[in-house]
Amino acid sequence: MNREKRDPLARRKERHVPPGARSRAMHAMSARAAMGRFVLQGCVDCGEVTYPPRDACPRCWGELQWTDRDRGARVLSETTIRISTDLYFRGQLPWRMGKVELDAGPVALAHLHAGLKVGERAEMRLMLDRGGNAALFALPVGREPDMDDRQWREFVVPVKDRTILVSDARSAIGRAVVHALHAAGAGHIVAGLAPPARVADQSDGVSGLTRVQPVPLDLTDPVMVAECMSKIAGPLDIVINTARLVRGGGVSADGNLVEQRRMLDIAVLGFMRLAQASAPLLQGRPSGAFVDVLSAQALAGDSNFAGYAAGEAARHSLLQSFRHEMRAVGVRVLSVFTGPSDDEDHQSVPPPKVAPLRLARAIIEALEAGREVSCVGDVAVDAMDRWAADPALYMREKNL
């Protein structure tokens, strides 16, 4: 692998983010784009579909509602921007933009993939820029996006040739993530293994992989977290937090307080230790990202896993704050929600369950699609839909 070489005396290049001022309607679009949806506003009175987002219908001043729309479009014209006063775009020039006619109706200005030409059909995506705001991006139809396209890379997080830390590579999910990253061409994988070492570590296939560096890492130990970061040779591009401790028990009964305390230490304080230690390293990277694997139980309390659900909910809240902090420096923070995984932690939970390899592949897909929030498995998808529709009802039904 060709590792990046840097002059230790050279001044670090400053990383800027796109302009962040947006209307409330545009923030509403960004919230939906974060989940990979392609939505536009439609008038409930006259049916007019409109873009950019507005507070009222431009035709009849009626109420507008968000609706998922057809992603098809046709490129009408293109232009190349070569001069800009904005600090972010000055470092990205030249930059291709184009006018596209959406199948849903409106004509819009969009970022153009290098493989698109005027007159061609395009597939539209609502992508989040480095500042966390939605933008239209036009891609060639029927082809996988080319990761060599410079503009596309500004909206996604490539995995190939990157240095990636997996916080817990001993769990079933962590092992699957390491194997999936290796298959995807990650340049260097730092696999965290909490002591004590186990005999199974030598036969699980992770330690023997090329480009994988096992390191001791226990998120409950701040010294070990700091030492782990110091052992990473070269820049760090992506952190994937797979560390968790799953134990059952309620609040007033069946809850082992020693286990509950360790669960919260890993889920909450452990997450903060990892975030604080890795954030300075990620800030200087051109495509830095932090991925956290969350249980769908973060959305509502669970009387059978009360402590675990509380820890996941607390980390979910911390992720919102962390995401806001890192947007200012262009680092993406991704949440991947999952239902019960098919591992030793959920032996007593009936199907459906999520296979660890499926979850690992979904993490890579979320990175390479630039999707801020993902749900993996039927349980997580159903939980997110019900929570988004009526949080109070979902929390009540969850424990019936």
TrEMBL record:
The residues the entry assigns to the signal sequence are none
Where is composition skewed (Basic and acidic residues) in this entry? 1-11
Q: Which domain of life is it from?
A: Bacteria
Question: InterPro entries from the xrefs?
Answer: ChsH2_Znr, NA-bd_OB-fold, NAD(P)-bd_dom_sf, SDR_fam, Thioester_dehydratase-like
Pfam families noted in UniProt: adh_short, zf-ChsH2
User: Which region ranges are annotated with the description Disordered?
Assistant: 1-22
Residue ranges of the ChsH2 rubredoxin-like zinc ribbon domain?
36-63
User: Can you name this protein?
Assistant: NADP-dependent 3-hydroxy acid dehydrogenase YdfG
